[in-house]
Amino acid sequence: MTMIGPDQLRHYATASVLEWVEADGVGGVIGSSIINANTRKQHALFTVAAEPKGRIVCVSNLQETLADGRLAYDLSTNAYFGAIHPCGFQSLESFRLEPWPSWTYRFDAILLEKQIVPVHGEHAIVIEYTLRHAQHPMTLTVRPLLAFRDFNGIRVERGSFPNHWTATREFIECRPFEEGPTIYIAHPNARIETIGLWYRGFLYERDRESRLDCIEDLYHPGSLELTLEPDEASALILSSPSPRSVSLAREYRESEKRRRESLIRTPGVPRDPLWTALLRTADAFIYERRDGVLGILPGLPWGEGERYRGLIAFAGLLLAPKRFDLARQYLEGVAADWRALHAPSRFEPEPAVGQMHPADVPLWIFIAAWRYWKATGDKAFRDDVLTPLLEDIAQYYTEGEETRCTPQGLVEVGYEPGADYAPLAPLGTNALWYNAQRILAAFLAERDSAKAETWNDRAEKMRVEFNVLFACEMRPGLADSVTREPFVRDETLRASQILAAGLPFVLAERPEAVLECVTRDLYTPVGLRTLSPHDARYVGDGTDIRFLPKCWSGSVDPFWLGCYWDAVSHLKGLGDVATVFAAFETDRKTRGLGHISGAFTGDPPHQPCDYIASAAPIGEIMRLYAREALQFTHVV
């Protein structure tokens, strides 16, 4: 149970860096600091999924005031340049993360409890208030602050902000823009006042630190006055695209509590504290897209590279906890996406520069398919869905427009639209391509042995040529890339080096040399550095990804730990990964509460930077923990 007390909550600088985040399972993501002072533009109280991706921040925050006659108590906290006002955080008694974010405020002898309950499967949240130790009813005034903009943008005051704010005894309907969403606020017969004014100059401190737009104006269309009776819960329900009666608040809360309790039970597994926490965390990333396809969010409350990070996270988020039905749905969606887009640059338009090439991403489908097959033994799905998909992708890589196969069987990139470099063969892409051919051969073996043999022969020829061309002269291990004309061997040491030794089929002729150089120069307890610290381009303070444009040049990405420990397992058997799990136990309590940070600085002490939570690291830590600590035999 994550609980924070008044000593930490009433210290703004300490409390404002701790964040909570929740998701509704259909693309909506909400969150803030634990004192509900928004410190990023992605922080929001109510969002809805947008087309074709992303989301719209509808309600950024609430301004809340509790009143008893002539006395008024602020719950809210806002940051402005040079000021914090109001200072509701000074009245906070506790914050609790489980089962959902909950706060207790103390005003002399009176306590006010507040909880925010996302409704899974729809864009709706319940905000519930309960007054304790009061001698008589009190009035709570709630002032919504509207943004209605992209979750990566900001709103700037404009006098003509439409005030489409229609109130009844049960609902408020709000639709500022014809092309935007309509939101509803269900209330318990509150007194409604229509105002229409701007709150100016909110400061988002984490964005300021990252040199991003950090000042926003928010529109206040009106207020709700709720009468709070002692010891009786009173709720608001925010929803879109249709209203939800406030009478459903208790039902929603109890239903969501049962759902969350069911998530942390894995068949045949005794309750394990870290595993339970990881299961809670994993649920936030899994969602249904607007087209009905199951997706995996790349990060919370934001992230890039959805298919790249989703495919890496897949085994840990869905296979390790035995959510096999969802795993099939996810792979079916991936198959549909590939057939619709049919080119790496379209399949993943948001590459992680310095870590991967768009040509890598469709090849991760082979790894996901292999892990699914090993976990489930689902022969029908393998033969009917996965094998045709993998054959189609493999055919593209031999004949496609954005990649070329060399006479040695290596994959070259540099033919995609907008490429501004000479064609080259990257190590990471070719390690994945080698595995793709071996996996396809294994899937075809029973049905078409001749095809399987052809792919195995191609893979073996490629392996031999690869190890000759990529052998380093200046250090152990393999080159990062090879250019044919003129011949150039780039011996930069990046995290993708580990793919040659840590994927299911080992490409490196001397995997121990790969593991040696990665361990010496890249390994940290929280992941692999994305560039060797001996490289002149190395950036160890996290600014390579904190500032735009991002280019991973030394910051640590935790997801590489999965492949690293796979390589250790190939060479040495079971590895000692206890220190890894201990490191993330600490991280889960120091930034994005309950989550694993998406990046750390390359230099010790490896401070979290960039993403609050990232799907790929959480998925890989879950896969490792399930296999190594819980000894799950279905996880590879």
If strands are numbered along the chain, what order do they take across the biggest sheet? 1-9-10-11-12-19-16-15-14
Write down the Rg: 26 Å
Q: Give the number of DSSP strands.
A: 31
Question: Mind summarizing the main beta sheet?
Answer: 9 strands, antiparallel
Relative strand content: 25-35%
Helix coverage percent: 25-40%
**Alpha carbon gap, first and last residue:** 30 Å
Shape: elongated
Mean pLDDT: 94
What class do helices, strands and sheet pairing give? Answer: alpha+beta
Low-confidence stretches: none
**Number of DSSP helical runs:** 18
Q: If you had to describe this structure to a student in words, what would you say it looks like?
A:
The chain starts with a strand and ends in a 7-residue tail after the last helix. The chain is α+β, with helices and mostly antiparallel strands and 636 residues long. Helices cover 33% and strands 25% of the residues. It has 18 helices and 31 strands. The mean pLDDT is 94. Helix 5 runs antiparallel to helix 18. The strands form 9 sheets. It has a 9-stranded antiparallel sheet with strand order 1-9-10-11-12-19-16-15-14. Strands 4, 5, 6, 13, 17 and 18 form a 6-stranded antiparallel sheet that branches. The chain has a 3-stranded antiparallel sheet with strand order 25-26-27. The longest helix has 21 residues, at 379-399.
